[in-house]
């Protein structure tokens, strides 16, 4: 069964550094998402992406965050200047249509900011 | 977003059926009811979804009340691998833009051997 893959599984970064989290969505999917989950808290939506542009973003997704689909297969989340509070699990998801179709999640990247 | 209410936790015995309830009294006419689960140290996993009629798939069944104000996820024979947090989520039927999933606290299901 096709799956969403995320790399790396664990990223340790110094505060203030830039970090890029990578995702390979399911190949025929059109919609892409990032979510995060701070330890012990709920899964929170960050951003959705369709047709090479952001279609929706949450209040968490401020100017420090950006997303890109640099080629036909990868989908990346960049945090420009990381803060301690960015430490979390980051999940990528994809779906082929919205609403009626499920989102398929990767197993996440654990981001630890020192 | 319309809100859902689930019990914080439930327990079941292995190989017995489990009924996980969800209340969504403010559901709108075009909201789909989605269920996801999250196993320890993994990303959320889609389980099932429906609009009005009951639905079955290889993982579970979804029973939707006639007034759509509640639903029940049914695991027919629980296994130890089904121990997870189960989320009931309403997703609006938006055709042209990405539709966020709003996760609540979910129900922590414990399966006893």
Detailed description of the structure:
With 114 residues, chain A is mostly beta strands. In chain A, 0% of the residues lie in helices and 50% in strands. Chain A is built from no helices and 11 strands. Chain A has strands spanning 5-7, 10-13, 19-24, 31-37, 43-50, 53-57, 65-68, 75-79, 88-95, 104-105, 109-113. In chain A, strands 2, 4, 5, 6, 9, 10 and 11 form a 7-stranded mixed β-sheet that branches. A 4-stranded antiparallel β-sheet of chain A has the order 1-3-8-7, with no helix packed on it. In chain A, a hairpin with an 8-residue loop joins strand 9 and strand 10. Chain A is globular, with a radius of gyration of 13 Å. The termini of chain A are far apart. Chain B has strands at residues 9-13, 18-23, 31-38, 45-50, 55-56, 61-64, 70-75, 84-92, 107-112. Helices cover 0% and strands 46% of the residues of chain B. In chain B, strands 1-9-8-3-4 form a 5-stranded mixed β-sheet, with no helix packed on it. A 4-stranded antiparallel β-sheet of chain B has the order 2-7-6-5, with no helix packed on it. With 113 residues, chain B is an all-beta fold. In chain B, strand 3 (31-38) and strand 4 (45-50) form a beta hairpin. Classes of the chains: A mainly beta (114), B mainly beta (113).
What attributes does this structure have?
heterodimer, A: 114 residues, mainly beta, seven-stranded mixed β-sheet, four-stranded antiparallel β-sheet, 11 strands, 0% helix, 50% strand, B: 113 residues, five-stranded mixed β-sheet, globular
Write the layout of secondary structure elements.
The complex is a heterodimer of chains A (114) and B (113).
Chain A: E1 5-7, E2 10-13, E3 19-24, E4 31-37, E5 43-50, E6 53-57, E7 65-68, E8 75-79, E9 88-95, E10 104-105, E11 109-113
Parallel strand pairs in A: 2-11
Antiparallel strand pairs in A: 1-3, 3-8, 4-5, 4-9, 5-6, 7-8, 9-10, 9-11
Chain B: E1 9-13, E2 18-23, E3 31-38, E4 45-50, E5 55-56, E6 61-64, E7 70-75, E8 84-92, E9 107-112
Parallel strand pairs in B: 1-9
Antiparallel strand pairs in B: 2-7, 3-4, 3-8, 5-6, 6-7, 8-9
């Amino acid at each position: 069964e096709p799956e969403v893959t995320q790399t790396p599984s664990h990223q340790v970064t110094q505060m203030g550094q830039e970090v890029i989290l990578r995702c390979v969505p399911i190949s025929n999917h059109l919609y892409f998402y990032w979510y995060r989950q701070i330890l012990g808290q709920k899964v929170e939506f960050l951003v959705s992406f369709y047709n090479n542009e952001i279609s929706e973003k949450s209040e968490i997704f401020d100017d420090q965050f950006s997303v890109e689909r640099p080629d036909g297969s990868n989908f990346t989340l960049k945090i420009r200047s990381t803060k301690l509070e960015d430490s979390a699990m980051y999940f990528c998801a994809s779906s082929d249509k919205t609403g009626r179709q499920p989102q398929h999640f990767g197993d996440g990247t654990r981001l630890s900011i020192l | 977003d319309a809100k859902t209410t689930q019990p914080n936790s439930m327990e079941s015995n292995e190989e017995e059926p489990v009924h996980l309830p969800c209340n969504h009294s403010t559901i709108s006419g075009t909201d789909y009811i989605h269920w996801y689960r999250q196993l320890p140290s993994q990303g959320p996993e889609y389980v099932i979804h429906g609009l009005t009629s009951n639905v079955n798939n290889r993982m579970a069944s979804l029973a939707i009340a006639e007034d759509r104000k509640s639903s029940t996820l049914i695991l027919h024979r629980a296994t130890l691998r089904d121990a997870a947090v189960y989320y009931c989520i309403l997703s609006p039927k938006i055709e042209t833009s990405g539709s966020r999933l709003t996760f609540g606290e979910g129900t922590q299901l414990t399966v006893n051997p």
